[in-house]
Amino acid sequence: MSLFVSAASAGEVDPRFDGRWVGREFFKYMSPGYRHFIGAPTVIGITNSGKMLGVISGFAPGRYEISSESSGRTLVFQMPNTKGDTLLYQGRQHCTLTLSSDGNTIKEYGNAIFISGSRGPSLSTDVYGTFHRQGK
Predict the structure, then answer these.
(1) Residue 120: phi, psi to the nearest 5?
(2) CA 30, 31, 36, 41: dihedral to nearest 10 degrees?
(3) For 111-123, what is each residue's pLDDT tens digit?
(4) Which phi and psi angles does 135 have, rounded to 5°?
(5) pLDDT tens digit sequence for 31-48
(6) At a CB cut-off of 8 Å and minimum separation 6, what does 46 contact?
(7) Structural domains of the chain, ranges and CATH numbers in brackets
(8) Using CA atoms, how far apart are residues 9 and 6, in angstroms rounded to an integer?
(9) Against a cut of 0.90, is the pTM above it?
């Protein structure tokens, strides 16, 4: 049975990523003189054997790009068409989701970019969170 559960081959994402995930993301702002943490409720949906990811609610909702670096219990994602070279960008960049061995929890770590106003300034921050599968 354990062979069936971990059947993702090299370069493929574990199909147990698929589903609706609910949790809280934390954003760590690093500004001169202080640190600030904000927690935000977030819902993530993953489908198509880990090939499609969308943030349903929370910071910067929308469809995200899955990186070719993803495999097994690691899913790497970021906003589409943003390789860090755009001036007006808000969303997650170079984020990693790691699936627990039992397939019921994912841990997130990465970078988020916030923009205040239509032309900036932008603020880069660490983002991390824990999500639990909603339903089965």
Answers:
(1) 105, -170
(2) -70
(3) 988 776 566 567 7
(4) 70, -175
(5) 665 566 677 899 999 999
(6) 17, 18, 19, 21, 52, 53, 54, 75
(7) 2-133 (2.40.160)
(8) 8
(9) no
